[in-house]
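Researcher: Here's the sequence for the chain we discussed earlier.
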Amino acid sequence: MKRMQRARREEGIALITTIGLLVVFMLIGIAWVDYMTVETNKSDLQINLIRARYAASGGVQAGIAHVEAALATQALPSSTLPELKVPVYRKGDTPVLDEDRECRVTVTISDESARININYAPPNVLRKILGVEAEEAREIRSSLPRLEGEPVTAGDQDRHWFTSVDELVTRSFLTAEQLTPELAALLTVYSVPDPANPAGYMNVNTAPGPVLEALLDITPDVAARVIETRTQRPLADVTELSAAAGKDPATFNVRPAPDALNTLPRELGFTSRCYRIASHAELVKDERVIGSGYVEAVVYIDPQGSPRILHWSEGLRETESVTASVEEPEAAPAAA
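Model: Thanks. This is the structure I predict for it:
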């Protein structure tokens, strides 16, 4: 009898152990499926971001082609291009068009020479555009490599170009609060492709009001008058610029050479060959954004019509976040 009870007890323990192991394996299986689902979704999201980034890169190339064509005919490039739609294909032995998805790309173009180049602007221009004192503006200028005609001084080896507008903060010339997005949008470090020949790199025909105020040392009302004048017909020479501003070129903050006071200052120009192209791509399925990419480039088109990339950056815009995922990572946009 005792032997039978012991056998039954052992059978019960074995059954409970087996059931316990089955429950453990089941929980492990569920956890593994959940983990793989999360990893698959993360992988899908990453693939969609890559697709969108490639589409955005294609948008930049389309923008460069548009700028090249415009300059070839002496026309102004458009500020925006018609929305581009990039087809999406499923991967396989033969690529198949995915009817449920598409990449939509928007491209904007702005004149980089409409901004003030902080590497070359004289102290008076820096003072006015940055809102700093004259001594602070001179300190910024003296921290940069000397320009042609400036005297050689001790410590020249410690002078360095700004490689980004943000360095005004990192090099402690401005605070983060002073360098607002609105101010940063008026500044550049990219509009001079040839440091040995910095000429005509600030375009008075496209510069916004605050830039004109700083360059020409004029009031907002006068800047508005200059903009109205050039809207009717682009300014073509220093006489027209002087008349629109109502002052002699020798009184501009950017001044002509002392031996040619009635000529256009070397820094100013009436046209541009340097443009900023921003491309934003969205991968869409069922009208839902499942991937987003942003690429921005500054390109210089030389007089022979060849483009030169001066700046290139990729990533999401600061205001964007993408959390959606899709089920079929094998789809991919066609190469632009």
